[in-house]
Every structure is written in C-alpha cells, then in structure tokens.
Amino acid sequence: MDTPLADRLRPKTLKDYIGQTHLLGPGMPIRRMIENKKISSMILWGPPGCGKTTIAHLIAQSIDAVFVPFSAVTSGVKEVRQVIADADQRQQFFKQNTILFIDEIHRFNKSQQDAFLPAVETGVITLIGATTENPGFEINAPLISRAHVYVLKQLTDNEMRKIVKRAIKKYPQNKFEKDAIDHIIVFANGDARSAISAIELSASMAKRVNLEIAEVTLQQKSIYYDKKGDSHYDTISAFIKSMRGNKPDATLHYLSRMIKAGEDPMFIARRMVIFAAEDVSNAQPTALVLATSTMQAVHMVGMPEAQIILAQCATYLATAKKSIASYSGLMAAMHDIETMKLDPIPLHLRNPSNKVMKEVGYGKGHVRYPWQAQQSADAKAMADKQEYLPENLKGKKYYKLD
To answer: Which listed site, 71, 83, 242, 337, has its alpha carbon 20 to 30 Å from 166?
Structure first.
C-alpha cells in the first residue's frame, strides 16, 4: 500500500517546515527547545492540518528520542501504561528518551489523563499532546501545569500556496492549472492535509488538472467546526456580537458558517429569541414576537428551507433599534436581592384575602387603578403617594431608558 502524499511530504528539518513562525521562527520557544535539545512536555493546540504532528516528529528527531505515536481514539490507559513501562526500561538500560505523542489527547477523559502524570513528572516520558479543542476545558489542570500549551494558527493562503506547490512537484507528469490551484487553496481553508490530499486525488483523476477536476476533488469546503468545541462558541459569539453591532452583513456571514457546518438550526433560533429580549427589548418589542415565530417556523419547516427564515430574523435583529434597559434593570434588581436585606412587602400591596388580614392593614389605602385616580384631586394625591418598593428601596431606579 502506497504511503499517503501527506506523510511523504512531511518536513524532515526545521528549514523545510512552513508556518507557525511564532513558535518555530528564529528565537521562538519551540525552535529554541530544539536547538538546545532541552524538550519539555507540551500541548499543541490548533485547527486540523496546521502541522501539530510534524512539530512532534521534528522535536523527536532533534534529540534522537524514540517517537511513540499514540491515538486517543483507538487506545486506552492499558496501552499507555505499557508505553510508559517500555520508556522506563529504555531510559534505564539505553539512556534513551521517549517522546509520547498523543493525537487528539482531548478524547481521553480526566481520569485517563491522570495515568500520564507520574511519568511526565519524573521525566520517564516527554509528552506531546495534540488537540483541536481548548485545553483549558478538555485537559485536566495537573497535566496542564506540567506542560507548556502552545497555540498553533491556521495556515495563511501564502503558506498554503507553498505547500501546494511542493505537493505538485511530486507529479511532474501532471499539469495543474492556476484556477485549479487557487480553488484548492481557498477550499482547503488552511488545512494543509486537506490540500495535499486534493492534489493527490486530482493527479490520479487527470493528467491536466483544471478547475472542474479540482471542484470534483474538493466536493465541500473544509470547514473546521466542532459543535461542542471552540468553533461552536466562537462563531455563535461573533454572530451575536454582529447583530448587537448593527452589522447585517457580518451577521449573515457567521449565520452561513453555522448553517454550512451543520449547526442545529434550533440552537441558532433559541439564541435569537434570547437576543431579541436582551438586546432589542422594548426599543422594538416586535423583535421578540418575530424571533419566537422564527423558532416555531424553523421547527415546523426544517432544513434546508429553515435557513431562509433564520436569515430573515437575523437581519431584522441586526438592523433593529437596541435597548438593554430591561436586562440591566433585572441584573441590578437581582444584585440587590442577593446583597441587601429584604424588607417586608408594603402592607397596601398585600392581598387582604380574609378578615384578619384586613384588620392588620393588608391592602389598606391601595389605589388599584392609579391612572383613573387623576380624575379626583384626593385620589390623585393618594395614588402619587403610594409606594411600591420595600422600605429600604424607596426611590430605587432599576429601569433606566437608554
């Protein structure tokens, strides 16, 4: 079986590596580790195809360590313990270091991750974990405290072009047209592995690779979006902030990202209902009506047509007048409830549901319809004097119009 092109193209030296200059450029942290041959355990966090595995290989080569690749998807704690036992023997008898590279380390649960701690702490292994998920959420604190966390960036178009050109050189018998190359770069979306695989497949399909071949090869744009990870939260955050900033174009962009990535349309609709109440509120009360109707319509219609309904509501909310008076007032009232003494409810506001209650003053002097009291001077004076807040909060203002 032929080795995949992505593996054959994997850089063997630092000078061949493309991207991540903030980590591997002159004087940068991982480069200095490699040059000094003093490697610490680390977590490499970044999107797919940005070069995490290659960095681990380069580190292992730099210190002549045994590189043990390990997948959190296919292996468990039993296999980890065996790797650690082998590394211990290797260190004792051959004075050779072991780099344990764990791809998708976030797939180990917290208790499974504990199995690495003693070996990392004593230096039996140098752990390099790769993850597309936020380590702060997915990796336990003791392990993070023993490892550096390095953030890898999505590859730029220029970096992707260099990688694609390098891949094309492996197929001198094929002719790749410029628009086909451009298409692969754009639709690989910063994922080098995806671009290289597209080159490999295109070359097997035709001697002359034009745009049509490239489009067939990359049936769908490589969008990294994990519904339980950072992409999910970052995109919905950008969507909401764009609506809040009265930017319908940006709103549609982030809505399209979520739709294209297969986000649950009901999740998007629920967020718009919340937004309508929190950010638009009484400045344009119909927003909540439309958002609620949107949620019902999305539920009834389903995708793909529901995307039209989501777009209508999103652009309405993005262009609507905004007010957080209700939300701010609620938060201020909640704060007082949590931090202040709760004085009794005024007697005149209480319901006199029996004779005893009436005798002690429940409901006494209460003006039920203050707006009608304006017809009588005495009734108006009583209505104006009527207090609704507890004694210690008299005159407190929560609802302040923007």
So the answer is: 71
Cβ-contact 239, 264 below 8 angstroms: no
Residue 147 has which token pair?
Answer: 């490892």
* Cβ-contact 278, 242 below 8 angstroms: no
Q: What's the rounded Cα separation, in Å, for the pair 22 and 301?
A: 47
Burial (0-12, 13-18, 19+ Cβ within 10 Å), 192: buried
Compute the Cα dihedral for 167, 170, 174, 175 and give only its sign: positive
Distance CA 115, CA 75 (A): 13
Residues whose CB falls within 8 Å of the CB of residue 242, separated by 6 or more in sequence, listed in order: 250, 251, 253, 254, 318
Residue 378 carries which side chain, given as an amino acid letter? D
Give Cα separations from 339 to 60, 275, 389, 392 (angstroms): 56, 27, 16, 13
Q: What does the alpha-carbon distance between residue 37 and residue 33 come to, in Å, rounded to a whole number?
A: 6
Q: Report the distance separating Cα 36 and Cα 22, nearest Å.
A: 18
Q: How far apart are CA 305 and CA 226, in angstroms?
A: 23
Q: How far apart (Å, rounded) are the C-alpha atoms in residues 205 and 226? A: 31
Q: How far apart are CA 38 and CA 62, in angstroms?
A: 10
Contact 280, 288 (CB under 8 A): yes
Q: pLDDT digit of tens for each residue in the chain (402 aa)?
A: 578 898 899 999 999 999 999 999 999 999 999 998 889 999 999 989 999 999 999 998 888 888 888 877 777 778 888 888 999 998 888 888 889 999 888 888 777 788 888 888 888 999 999 998 888 878 888 888 889 999 999 999 999 999 999 999 999 999 999 999 998 998 888 899 999 999 999 999 999 999 888 888 877 555 555 555 567 788 899 999 999 999 999 999 999 999 988 888 999 999 999 999 999 999 999 999 999 999 999 999 888 899 999 999 999 999 999 999 999 999 999 998 888 888 888 888 888 878 778 777 888 877 777 766 566 666 666 666 778 888 888 888 888 886
The torsion angle over the Cα atoms of residues 305, 311, 317 and 318, rounded to 10 degrees, is: 170
